[in-house]
Amino acid sequence: MPLSLHPVISDSEFDKLIDCEWASYETPHNPAWKFFYPIWGPTPEDRLAAIEESKRRQLQLHHTRPSSHWVKVINDDTGAVVGAALWLVFETNPYEHPPEEKATCFWWPEGPKRQMADEIMRQVMGPRVERMSKPHLFPNAKLIDLCFVHPSHPRRGAGRLLVEWGVKKADEMGLEAFVESTLAGKPLYESCGFLTMNGFELKPSLPEETEELEKLQQDLWFNGYFMWRPRGAFLRRGRRLCHGRRILRWNPSMLLDMDMSDSLFVFRVAINLDISLFKADTHLYICAGENVCFERGIRRYTWGL
Fold first, then answer.
1. Burial environment of residue 42 by CB neighbours within 10 A (0 to 12, 13 to 18, 19 or more)
2. Which of 129, 162, 192, 270 is the most exposed place for a label (fewest CB within 10 A)?
3. Is 60 exceeded by the pLDDT of residue 237?
4. Where are the beta strands (DSSP E) in 140-221?
5. Which phi and psi (to 5°) does residue 90 adopt?
6. Prior bond to 28 cis, omega within 30?
7. HSE of 21, CA atoms in CB hemisphere, 13 A
8. pLDDT band at residue 140, thresholds of 50, 70 and 90?
9. Which of the residue ranges 68-72, 128-132, 233-237, 272-276 has the most confident prediction, judged by mean pLDDT?
10. Chain-wide mean pLDDT for the chain?
């Protein structure tokens, strides 16, 4: 069963793409998908209406964002779309000019339900602005990472084709990349050079204690992993951390100045190189330019070009 990767270049391609998307996020169920594209009713007609609305909104976002790049995977034997991804390519900081008005989940009805949805959006956007205020790649549309494979084609290489497209683009442009992954997708991203910065939980509080809102709270409860890939990253073992021709031997006496945030420490050393120090996967990482080094026990690993 040969698979091939193609850019999405016309609106007509979205019909099959969106059908694949819905099948992928409904089986297995993804709570974040229900948050972004809720079905307002129990009938098949209600589901079809939600699919059409999701297609309209995603097309609108694609046309209004220069950063938007859709790619899809085709089964060459049948012509069926078996997976797709939306990669956002930001050559500048996308959060440099925040909107004057706070974003609201307009697709939810006004009242306590929208209040809960808005809270989830704030839980997502706060860490993004803190960590991703720089040029980068991100497979995202508002909330969830849009990188999906049809449930009839698991573990056949479609997901890797989609992720490798973004990784290659990031390396060509010299950019970092971020993803927000489910537990199921985490191993694939790790195999493509992504590091787990931290796990996260999205859960809105209850504006009112009613049975309906308590059920909605459980339905929207979502866990995931925030992951980061350095510029041009691949793992080298047994090498020292280098920057140009200099070998860096980090020790506390090199520390001149430190800016501490939640999980990121930025400081400058005596030889005027910017270094970033942070924790991920319970290990300590040191970043210098396009290189990242961390120590685990007595062994040393280096990420770099």
1. exposed
2. 270
3. no
4. 140-141, 144-145, 147-149, 176-181, 195-202
5. -105, 110
6. yes
7. 28
8. low
9. 68-72
10. 77
What is the C-alpha separation between 186 and 196, in angstroms, rounded? 8
Are residues 166 and 139 in contact, defined by beta-carbon separation less than 8 angstroms? yes
The pTM of this model reads 0.77
State whether residue 11 is helix, strand or coil.
helix
How does pLDDT run across 148-188, given as a tens digit for each residue? 999 999 999 999 999 999 999 998 998 889 999 999 999 99
Confidence (pLDDT) at 2? 94
Rounded to an integer, what is the distance from CA 252 to the centroid of its chain?
34
Look up residue 227 and give its two tokens.
């992951």
Element (H, E) at 96: none
- The more confidently predicted of residues 242 and 175 is 175
Q: Is residue 227 within 8 Å of residue 265, measured between CB atoms? A: no
| 60 Cβ neighbours under 8 A, 6+ residues apart | none
User: How confident is the model at residue 151, as a pLDDT?
Assistant: 96
Residue whose structure tokens are 């449930």: 151
- Residue-level pLDDT at 302: 39
For the chain, what percentages of helix, strand and coil (3-state, to nearest 5) are there? 30, 30, 35
Measured in degrees and rounded to the nearest 5, phi and psi for residue 213 equal -75, -35
CB atoms within 10 A of CB 112: 17
User: Is residue 40 within 8 Å of 227, Cβ to Cβ?
Assistant: no
CA-based nearest residue to 32, from 204, 158, 177: 204
Helix axes 44-64, 14-26, angle to 10 degrees: 120
Measured CA to CA, the distance from residue 137 to residue 233 in angstroms comes to 14
Q: Which residue from 19, 166, 148, 144 is spatially nearest to 80, judged by alpha carbons?
A: 19
The pLDDT score that the predictor gives to residue 136 is 85
DSSP per position, 207-237: SS--HHHHHHHHHH-EEEEEEEE-TT--EEE
